[in-house]
Amino acid sequence: MKTVWQAFRTQARAVFGDKGALLLLVVAPLIYSAFYPLPYLQHVVRGVALGVVDLDQSAQSRQIARWLEAHPNVTPQAFADISSAERALREGTLGGFVILPAGLERDLAHKRPATLPVVADAGYFLVYRQALTAVLEAAGTLGAQVQVGRQLAAGQPLDQALAARDPHPLVVRPVFNRTESYLPYIVPAVYVLILQQTLLMGLALLAGTAREKAPHPNQTGHPPPPAHLLATLGTLMGRTAFLVGLYCFHALYFWGWSTVIFDLPAGGQALHLFALLLPFLVASALLGIALSPLFREREQAFAYLLFTSLPILFISGFVWPREAMPVWMPHFAAIFPTTPAIEGFLALLAMNAPWSAVAAQAWHLWLLAALFALPAYLAQRSR
Prior knowledge:
By secondary structure, this protein is mainly alpha-helical. It is built from 17 helices and 4 strands.
């Protein structure tokens, strides 16, 4: 027990006595959690600049333009010709433009199909989606108005005309993310990634620092003898206990005060959240200790680990469905603690799932902790 407490204090002094480690393990998670949600505070993209090239100049084309002006997704801008609209799109001042072709009203009057060409920036899929959705809804409203008007002119009652226009109306009710925005969708998962990656990089930084400062065996005459089994286990337990305690504080801030500030999903019972958090932090800490012998210099922590953040996030299964991945990729992703942790925390926080729905993820994390325990012990023993 004395060895555990000594290792706990030694790890605390190492973290708070190194400016780089302090920044990564203490300050960075708080800064990331405060600034990462800021771009998504508007929840959905609104006011996309949409050019309108009205070549028909008819009552029907002006009606479409007015409906676009009333749509919250876009802010229409009139253009006299297609070339000027194309120029504005290439310069980045437009998210897209719609062409109201000449003869639009005549085609509708003669019951001929009318085509509304839309040119949108598909390189930014959120802008592309909002611009296209606005045009589709305005064109759909016009089509419904024309079709229902013809049936009313033929003497059909209004209710029958409306039913004939849409005999099977689709009712869409989003669940778990009712605003259909990126804030509750991506931020809770990224919080889990922040916990793991800052922990791994901080431990790698400390490992590189220790190796830079450690005397070479030639300077001391011979390398130190290996530590006793119980002493190594006690040291490993003390280091892990400090890291888990520190990151429990970060998690409490993430899913406590930060959730209130940014209106993030806050489902799930506190006991269930902690029961999933504990094996996640233990597995992440042991993974960081196990990887520490790979780092000989401080800078390698950033060179080797920083670029892994986005791939780990994308293969976790919530950004891109596992069913659409290569067969081997979900199995490879299963070795990272973030994969079951993201799945479990999203189920608890966003879906308010019962513990039985995330018990498999908790056992997965405990299995990873057991898997990383031996290499972490060997890494600690080599120090």
